[in-house]
Amino acid sequence: MLAMNYRGPFRVRVDHKPYPEIQHPQDAIVRVTRSCICGSDLHLYHGLVPDTRVGMTFGHEFIGVVEEIGSSVQNLKVGDHVLVPFNIACGTCSFCKQGLYGNCHESNPEATAVGGIYGYSHTAGGYDGGQAEYVRVPFADVGPMVIPADIHPDDAVLLTDVVPTGYQAAEMGGIKPGDTVVVFGAGPVGIMAAKCAWLFGAGRVIVIDHLEYRLDFVRTYAQCEAYNFRSMQDPVLFLKKATDFYGADVCIDAVGGDAAGSALQTITGRKLMLQAGSATALHWAINSVKKGGIVSVVGVYGPTDNLIPIGNVVNKGITIRANQASVKRLLPRLIEHVQAGRIDPKGIVTHRVPLEEVSDAYHIFSAKLDNCIKTILIPPSARV
Amino acid sequence: MEDLASNYAHIKGWGIDADPKNEPTYPMKNYTGDDHRRLNYEKPPQQPVNVEVLHSNERPGITAVFGTSSPPSGMSGAIRRYAFKFSESEYGHWLPLLFADRVNVVEGIIDDLKRGYVPNILAEKGWNAEWKYNRKGLITKLAVGALVTATAVALLCRSNSNEDED
Ligand SMILES: [Zn+2]
Ligand SMILES: [Zn+2]
Q1: ipTM surpasses cut 0.85
Q2: Most exposed: A60, A83, A292, A328, by fewest CB within 10 Å?
Q3: pLDDT confidence of residue B161
Q4: Which residues contact A244 (CB under 8 A, 6 or more apart)?
Q5: Residues A275 and A318 in one domain
Q6: What pLDDT score was predicted for residue A36?
Q7: Residues A278 and A340 in one domain
Q8: CATH of the domain at A57
Q9: Ranges under pLDDT 50 in chain A
Q10: Half-sphere exposure of residue B13: CA atoms within 13 angstroms, side-chain side
């Protein structure tokens, strides 16, 4: 089968790899019909995530048709078209029992701080991902969900990560009706967080980024205000002035470790890798939120140290909420929103690319060429 | 709330998930109250271990399932095994892993060559797309690269000839 193959930082290609096999009674094999390239794949692509081994296949956002099921799988049958949440979750550990599917304790031997994630380095369990023709899906009774007939496949694939992560970012912000919400980052997740902030009753939604095409996009798509931090001397001061010198009620970090905007953070976090990613967005979020406000973090950072203004967290009495989205917990509600037209996930898709052109697709997204917001990869086996 | 809602009539679904009880504790709302039981849950059956699986020393043994993508091998594998002696809280864990990743890149090229496959590194880097969407940037990059190389070569030649004279 064809699959994306990681060869090193900024180097990926498509190769023939062996078909995945059932390795556990609760496994399924899924024939991928669509997968996406995610902003968090760029952290892998840039070589920032430890234990990203050469030969791995990325891709934690995918949907597909069930080809084969293990002996104890009961909720799925061969031929079902399913969307697969990016978290691999057992459904029985004490974290899964709480609905913390992103924090499962039985899917990732390599680390305890993060659960299993498809195609996301060995630090997230060493699973091959869905940027391939076929993929192994563990705990098939827990994660995958049959795609309802009235949900478009392009919407379904965005429900595996982008929509739930954006929604949970807004949810963790504890937004109260009328609140001012600032979202850092106008990538797919930031766009969706801005959109979902309205569902929680935000009174004002402000998005900060540095790419004009993204700012234009988010203004229209999420009906919000959007500003370029490159045109500001100081984003924190700008936001204080924009909120009557009070601070935003809720700040959302939808950027993570690849953030631009601060030379010190860039050099120590991205070039020298002395930090677990450049924490510029988080820094701005903490400093622009009001006293007693809430900072919600869904941006991906590495596991070790970061330079963050913890003194201000204490002095301002900020609540920080952060997690990988627990996709399965949120899906039923999000499907209602899509069906009712309150969220239009496929509206952010700008590129549809054959899997064979994965090298170019990664480069376009990483280098922000051709006004790219979100790319869907289509494997040859899904085109016949 | 009704007054506020009329201001947002242009946004479909405004406030539909607003809940006065929405404290930012949603991801924990299904807390069962017996979390102190810790690892006493019924563990799913164990996936057979037929590849080498490194596991965090912060947990007992390996998880019920795991990925089998790229088992540790060669020099990078040896570095990874060393890294797993340290907890996830230590640089001793993560820095060797990042170093192993770099070593692994070289191993990957050697593997390709051993199989008689010469990797097209420019294509792998997506330079076809660069040529299509950022031709000017690419040409500048190449020109700067050529200039730097030419200058370096010139300097090296000069210092060599100086040495000859001495
Ligand atoms: Zn993603
Ligand atoms: Zn679990």
Answers
A1: yes
A2: A292
A3: 56
A4: none
A5: yes
A6: 97
A7: no
A8: 3.90.180.10
A9: none
A10: 20
